[in-house]
# Entry
Amino acid sequence: MAARKKSAQINLLPQEQFAASTTGRVLTWALSTFRIIVIATELVVILAFLSRFFLDAQNADLSDEIEQKQATIAAAADFEKTFRATQKRLTVFSELTSEKTQATDSLSKVSQSLPPDVFLDSITLGGGSLIIAGFSPSERSIQEFVVNLESRLIPKAVTLQEIETSFEDPSLMKFTINASEPVVVEEGV
# Structure
């Protein structure tokens, strides 16, 4: 019988003497530690690769959600613009209606004070004052109008600002009356 040939095994690290030496122990420790480090690194890489799919899906979902919300905001922009404009108009309207009662009251008192031969050109109400411009054939009618206004517009100080002959019709006199809040002058004690 032929003798079986043993396969030759080459081991560069001698088992007995080298493993017991300091260099052998350090080399054995380093090889086993680096093997663990390589395995841990491979696990981290695999986890990063697998988490990429989860994060991509999450990113796509968030992008879709952002697009939906942007579409909702864009659709509501016209409504919001209309709503704000309507709100602004309502604010102006409420301010005007609150001033309307004051204007109606003042116009009522002016019309009650008007002598028959006095004609009004304009009435301006605002800023706490009432300015009346008009025409009359006589100074007496203008004076009567001022006295009537003073008696009816109690909290107002009525002054005749301007009186002159009209350029269009010399038989008429043009006048301007200002009725404003009276100025209280305090005298020293």
